[in-house]
Amino acid sequence: MQLQVMMSSGFSVFRVGISFIIMCSFYMPTVGSLLELSPQKYFSTLQPGKASLAYFCQADSPRTSVFLEELNEAVRPLQDYGISVAKVNCVKEEISRYCGKEKDLMKAYLFKGNILLREFPTDTLFDVNAIVAHVLFALLFNEVKYITNLEDLQNIENALKGNANIIFSYVRAIGIPEHRAVMEAAFVYGTTYQFVLTTEIALLESIGSEDVEYAHLYFFHCKLVLDLTQQCRRTLMEQPLTTLNIHLFIKTMKAPLLTEVAEDPQQVSTVHLQLGLPLVFIVSQQATYEADRRTAEWVAWRLLGKAGVLLLLRDSLEVNIPQHANVVFKRAEKGVPVEFLVLHDVDLIISHVEHNTHIEEIQEDEDDDMEGPDIDVQDDEVAETVFRDRKRKLPLELTVELTEETFNATVMASDSIVLFYAGWQAVSMAFLQSYVDVAVKLKGTSTMLLTRINCADWSDVCTKQNVTEFPIVKMYKKGENPVSYAGMLGTKDLLKFIQLNRISYPVNITSIQEAEEYLSGELYKDLISYSSVSVLGLFSPTMTTAKEDFSEAGNYLKGYVITGIYSEEDVLLLSNKYAASLPALLLARHTEGKIESIPLANTRAEDIVQIVTDALLEMFPEITVENLPSYFRLQKPLLILFSDGSINPQYKKAILTLVKQKYLDSLTPCWLNLKKTPVGRQILRAYFDPLPPLPVLVLVNLHSGGQVFAFPSDQAIIEENLVLWLKKLEAGLENHITILPAQEWKPPLPAYDFLSMMDAATSQHSTRKIPKCMKETDVQENDKEQHEDKSAVRKEPIETLRIKHWNRSNWFKEAEKSFRHDKEL
Amino acid sequence: MGLSAAAPLWGPPGLLLAIALHPALSVPPRRDYCVLGAGPAGLQMAYFLQRAGRDYEVFERAPRPGSFFTRYPRHRKLISINKRYTGKANAEFNLRHDWNSLLSHDRRLLFRHYSRAYFPDARDMVHYLGDFADTLGLRVQYNTTIAHVTLDKDRRAWNGHYFILTDQKGQVHQCSVLLVATGLSVPNQVDFPGSENVEGYESVSIDPEDFIGQNVLILGRGNSAFETAENILGVTNFIHMLSRSRVRLSWATHYVGDLRAINNGLLDTYQLKSLDGLLESDLRDLAILKDSKGKLHVTLKFFLEEASTNQSADAITLPQDDNDNFAMRVPYDRVIRCLGWNFDFSIFNKSLRLNSGNAFGKKYPLIRASYESKGSRGLFILGTASHSVDYRKSAGGFIHGFRYTVRAVHRLLEHRHHSVAWPATELPITQLTSSIVRRVNEASGLYQMFGVLADVILLKENAMAFEYLEEFPVQMLAQLETLTGRKARHGLFVINMEYGRNFSGPDKDVFFDDRSVGHTEDAWQSNFLHPVIYYYRYLPTEQEVRFRPAHWPLPRPTAIHHIVEDFLTDWTAPIGHILPLRRFLENCLDTDLRSFYAESCFLFALTRQKLPPFCQQGYLRMQGLVSTESLRQHRVENRLLRDDAPMGRDLEDSSQQPGNQELLGAPLAPGPLAQSLDSNKEEL
Questions:
Q1: I want to staple A217 with a disulfide (CB 3.0 to 4.6 A). Which of A169, A371, A561, B117 is the partner?
Q2: In angstroms, how far is the first alpha carbon of chain A from the final one?
Q3: Which residues of A touch B682 (CB under 8 A)?
Q4: Residue A632: closest C-alpha in chain B
């Protein structure tokens, strides 16, 4: 879209742009080919005031034909500048002084009318860029001053102060593509600006440039300078030197530095937006107008070429803008709402702009280098990693591969875990790796048989097992219905599930002593590393329904939490000891060595499940990739302490105190260990710019509004400060540092629009509308690859219709590519 | 019941009267479903009715199933391929290349267990069908010829009338639904003067000895004509073949009913000028005369009409009298008619309004795309006789096609009469791409009945889930809700298999250069059978289906996707097949269908207000996909995941389009972060 707008502006102003379009749409074979003439004929065609490049040659030799190819390429671009190109064949009958005596001495000559301007040895015209650059350079002798030292530059600068602006550029050598780009720009803007060119690195260094190995282009703002002792301001063009970029750069230089507006920022549009640059509105009030204007000008100079800067007069504004906002940021992308910002430092404005346009620049770079966001490039991380890992051999032999013939016999004969997967599905294959890891870890220790069945081969078996999606893990135990695994698809959780399933659910505890061992973790010593909590249901022998409900819950929780049941006659001994009234649950937290009791009165199975699941939640957990979903479910704002490594016990104590004092009931307090969960660093980057020192405490309102608040980093994380901060937050006195984006997840890239392609194919008319330049590039390719006319003709519409509809400005990009293609040849 | 018909022969007169009156007075035996014919289609329907526990009966005139195959094809070689090996284990996929088996849950009832021949013997088919009926215990009443079918209006009946079937013994059967699977049983005869001199395919000798040194003319150009020729090619002087239209080679038309390569030996000898030949003419203009020596001459009906009556055959004008190089000027020893078969309309009473189709569908009864007769509700045509729906297009006239259309009819009936909705699997939207990939890679019904049966995906509200319906008769798309009992309120996808638009035809060169398409962006120009997915925002109306654009199997969709044809018909390539499909689905549904590791979901959960469906339906339900170390390594190496080293450089832009730049390999450009971190520290 943006590019399209740029195109249309190119139409009106930019001559190179126009000629390039002409090239695309009206180019006819007769125009673009190299004329071959005899010397006499050639000189008769020269017109007064018109430039013409002629190559005089005697006979074709391999060496000259390479040059001729390049010359041929240059015919079209030169024609666009009104320069004709010819190959003059020196024949014996017509001796011309331009005809060299030997093959090696053949040269090209540039005439204006019939006056010889320059002669070029063919090795200076090494490619099409060199040809165009040299020819324009010779013709624009007055418009482009070539200098070699700083003194020359200062002289020109001084001469032009108060009169005109300068476009100063450094290129590594004459004849390279950057030189051509500068010359093409000079052809268009040479009368408006003074172009100055150098190839001296020293000169570039002396004006303070870094990265001197690249081409540079500066805009010297000399017209505004009235005091001769003052230096002209300079603006460096940051994009690579291409014709298009120079054009865009000059356009932004021409735009007013600062504009005052008093309308809704959402509606404001300037040339910057059309050029794909954002707008920065400095909000001003009458009282501070002068100061604001000075600030705005200062910002405008800093952002010249990067963004448009406007002064927004709040007092005469009809729409409301948030009270505290002092800067409004509007992106060039259509339909993106403006952002209201509170930025108290000019540098923050600058960094905000640079930060927010950075990505785009990179994407443009990609466009230039490659195809742009190619819809044929995998952007699914799972599919991509699985694909890249496809050649690694997994120790699959540790799992038993089942088939239709062996499936039933195997799962009947022994307790088995079955992984149902599809060989072609990336998620399945990613999980298969974890599954094999489990097999490696369990090797020789488990009675559970690890098996797998590829549903791409044994589709019927999977359907019979009611498996309609992949991957699915089921556990088959003798005498029990198969159970589907519902945990994380990863090694750790699956291993836990398998290990915890070594016992029955709930475990029937038969003596007080056994119960105590169970609660202390002694009974299932090897399992409590998988389940930090053991649940014991206490029932008197007569409570049959309550026992049934508990058993049901225990069965539901199997593989996730250890559950046991005790309902002997002496159950009261236990209930008295733990101060529980029957029926009750005892929860033994092994890590903390605590046992708590929860009464169960007419509690249904699903409620018991809920009680146990809730009990598994910690008061101040370390949040990890694995456990976030359990806390996320609570739908409360997260209070996260980001810590680089283990948490400082003092902070932990402070927060736990607040938890106990019920200050944090409406929040989920937690902490994140960046060493263990490195992705936390990316989260911080989304919240902060720049990153504050660690630890940092953040409140994230995930479920309503997405505001992120940061505990002031200059305050100590102690109870009093935290309480005060929380109160201010509650009272709405704290400003958020950022709002999490609320965008929907849209298709990452467009799809092929086959429907339009089919439509285009059915109406011949519309195929003709396709810009011709695309055909030509393809025809060129065809010429190289195949010579049969018939197939090329048949192929043509196919090739032309290969339009990727991911971008409406696509044809422009294609054209640009072919444009570049020309240059590169 | 069987006794009542037999008893009168020897019972006392009084009893005779009583018993004879009995069927007339009392209600005749009533069935919910009556199936006519125990051929492949009849048995297939019986199987589904039996599995569903329905009240049904099959009537078969012969003592065993598949009587057609006891006599036909005359030369005993079936041209339905019996591919026993495909290199694949997938049973559903293998049915794509098994043209003879009927559908059943019993693995033993696969045709490959009945014949080792690639082109099996017809006796094996008889054997197979017999086993199919016996093993599955299908209810077939053999030796029962239904001689007459009529309607009996009754408001209580399912369809407002009962079908009254009368068998050869006068026994009457009352049926709520009538499923006619009688095939095409009447040889097609063209009436022209001298047609009495012509032998029919159904009775001509199949012993090559009988043709030694003879000149033979065969009328017709189908597989039976060529099969007949093939048998005697080596012993005759020559064979000429005559038919109205040019030969249609099945490998050019992609229609299995056209001439198959296995039968086309005569084409070879014709083109190599080995005396055999092909001719085109309308048979109705011809006449065949027998001369005094018993030789047969071809002439025009016109000459015959010119000549006055009772002229001797030798005196009648022959075309070569005027036109001395007339192609068929040699006399023939034999003329054989191989003109195909017609449906037997004779047993159906007019009240059933079972009419023949028009134009080229004359030999078939007129039916809807749901296989129900246009004339009477509750009367369905199954099997070969139902081929008018896809004549010369798909495989509905053959076992490997109609076994699926029979299942479709059964599903329609289950919903109509037993409130069993069309079977469907409901899945979360994250499974959408996979469920399509799975089906296009294994489904045999879609593959065989391309353009006729198509899978339909009905989206649920907000497109967070969908229902997958298999093999729906796609021409009935507009009536989908009433026919299946499923709701299509939120848009739908239709998955169809198609050949390229201009690829097939009797005169097409199917071996031209560049016939196969490899680029995904050219997928819409694929020529060979490939999956095509149609997206409709709303269920098309009947009007839209009927007045769809020419050559379109379906009305114009909102968007369309072609999965590029594949030489191996294996559409599981991650980039070539699955990725473009996902992009299409994403753009139809306006969502992101990518899969993410738990770590990415974690990041999104804490940095965005919304999560992609994969994270919502997996990670947030504690079923996230955890990446193993080696996969994680690939993510880091390929910049799918930013390495989170403490001094990592920053590109994060939280307000950009979600997900893009975190995952797509945006090259890590030198960023200002390191600097700003430092300066920040100074400020502090």
A1: A169
A2: 29
A3: none
A4: B620
Among 1.20.1740.10, 3.50.50.60, 3.40.50.2300, 3.30.450.40, name the CATH number for the domain at B30-185+343-410. Answer: 3.50.50.60
Residue ranges of A 237-296 with Cβ closer than 8 A to chain B: none
Does the beta-carbon distance from A685 to B650 stay under 8 Å?
Answer: yes
Q: Exposed, middle or buried: residue A809 (CB in 10 Å: 0-12, 13-18, 19+)?
A: middle
Span B77-136, pLDDT tens digits = 999 999 999 999 999 999 999 999 999 999 999 999 999 999 999 999 999 999 999 999
| Residue ranges of A 704-763 with Cβ closer than 8 A to chain B | 705-706, 713-714, 738, 740-755, 757-758
| Shortest Cα–Cα distance, A786 to chain B (Å) | 12
Residue of B631, B633, B638 to mutate, interface with A, max A Cβ within 10 Å: B631
Q: What is the mean pLDDT of residues B231-254?
A: 89
CATH code of the domain covering residue A92: 3.40.30.10
Instruction: Give this prediction's pTM.
Output: 0.70
> What tokens appear for B557 in the block?
């969709």
Our measurement of the distance from residue B255's CA atom to the centroid of its chain's CA atoms, rounded to an integer in Å, reads 11
Say yes or no for a CB contact (<8 Å) between B598 and A490: yes
**Chain B residues within 8 A of A737 when measuring between CB atoms:** none
The pLDDT assigned to B533 comes to: 97
The reply to whether A651 and A717 lie within a common domain is yes
Tokens of A233: 């301001």
Q: Rounded to an integer, what distance in angstroms lies between the CA atom of residue A488 and that of residue A384?
A: 21
Could you tell me the two tokens for A350? 């600058």
Does some domain include residue A360? no
If asked whether residues A246 and A214 sit together in one domain, one would say yes
Annotated domain spans of chain B: 30-185+343-410, 195-339, 423-589, 598-635
Task: For chain A, list residues with pLDDT below 70.
Answer: 1-32, 59-65, 91-95, 100-105, 212, 357-373, 764-825
Summarize pLDDT for A585-644 with one digit per residue, the tens: 899 988 888 888 888 887 888 899 998 888 888 889 999 999 999 999 999 999 999 999
Contacts of A239 in chain B (CB under 8 A): none
Q: Which of B642, B654, B657 sits opposite A746 (nearest CB)?
A: B657
Parent domain of A284: 260-352
Query: Does residue A670 contact residue A640 with C-beta atoms inside 8 Å?
Result: yes
The predicted-structure confidence for B390-434, as pLDDT tens digits, reads as follows 988 899 999 999 999 999 999 999 999 999 999 999 999 999 999
Contact yes or no for A746 and B591 at CB 8 A:
yes
Domain count, chain A: 6
Amino acid at the residue B6: A
Task: Indicate if A537 and A563 belong to the same structural domain.
Answer: yes
Clarify whether residues A230 and A161 are in a common domain: yes
Show which of A566, A587, A616 is a domain's final residue. A616
Q: What is the ipTM of this complex?
A: 0.85
Q: Which of A189-198, A690-699, B367-376, B664-673 has the lowest mean pLDDT?
A: B664-673
The answer to whether the Cβ–Cβ distance between B610 and A713 falls below 8 Å is: no
Rounded CA Rg of chain B: 32
Q: Would you say domain B195-339 falls under CATH 3.50.50.60?
A: yes
Can you give B110-179 as a three-state secondary structure string?
CHHHCCCCCCCEHHHHHHHHHHHHHHCCCCEECCCCEEEEEEEECCCCCCCEEEEEEECCCCEEEEEEEE
**Is B636 an 8 Å CB contact of chain A?**
no
Q: Do B584 and A752 touch (CB under 8 A)?
A: yes
Which segments within B6-61 are labelled E, that is strand? 30-36, 56-59
CA atoms within a 13 Å half-sphere pointing along the CA-CB vector of B642: 25
Q: What angle do CA A88, A94, A100 make, to 5 degrees?
A: 60
8 Å CB contact of B574 and A426? yes
Q: Kindly state whether residues A455 and A397 are assigned to the same domain.
A: yes
Strand, helix or coil at A595?
Answer: strand
Whether A460 sits inside 8 A of B92 (CB atoms) is: yes
